[in-house]
Write a structure and sequence with these properties.
Blueprint lengths: L3 H12 L7 E2 L7 H8 L6 E9 L2 E8 L6 H8 L4 E3 L2 H8 L16 E5 L8 E4 L5 E5 L1 H8 L2 E3 L3
Parallel strand pairs: 2-6, 3-5, 5-8
Antiparallel strand pairs: 1-7, 2-3, 2-4, 6-7
Length: about 160
């Protein structure tokens, strides 16, 4: 049995026509470094699902675990005002998932999503699957397709 957020992610993958590759770990993998260690992969292949507050609306940035998002650069490219890191309550409200386990999809409503172009360098990406113990693998192109993400240099 899966936690409800993981079940939502698995359903979203199926509805999107993507393969269900969810892996559940005994130990938590709430950070890119922890996930990379558990998976034996480069931290740059971990896709962090980072939620920001853009004028009261959620903005999801799928960024490499090896990168720090430059919110000023992203705001300038979007022609938007200030982008702020969202509070844990804001993240939970808009994704149904807790910080450290946010998945790229499976949220109550579609969230505007940006995809870090540096992730394209990796044939296999790993992303959170809705909780602190779950991840799923996917290609860059498939991740872009199922999330409808806008590709962007975010760092």
């Amino acid at each position: 049995m899966y936690a409800e957020p993981v079940a939502h992610l698995k359903h979203a993958l199926t509805v999107a026509g993507a393969e269900d590759t969810v892996t559940v770990f005994e130990l938590t993998v709430p950070t890119a470094a922890a996930a990379a260690a558990a998976l034996g992969c480069d931290v740059a292949a971990i896709t962090n699902s980072l939620v920001f507050d853009l004028g009261g609306a959620p903005l999801l940035i799928l960024a490499s675990g090896a990168a720090k998002v430059d919110v000023r650069k992203v705001a300038a490219q979007l022609g938007a005002g200030k982008i702020r890191r969202a509070s844990p309550d804001f993240v939970l409200e808009h994704t149904g998932q807790e910080v450290g386990g946010v998945a790229p999809l499976g949220h109550p409503e579609r969230i505007r999503t940006l995809l870090d172009v540096s992730l394209a360098a990796h044939p296999v990406l790993w992303a959170g699957a809705g909780d602190h113990n779950s991840m799923f693998s996917i290609s860059y192109e498939e991740l872009r397709r199922i999330t409808g993400a806008e590709e962007m240099d975010v760092r």
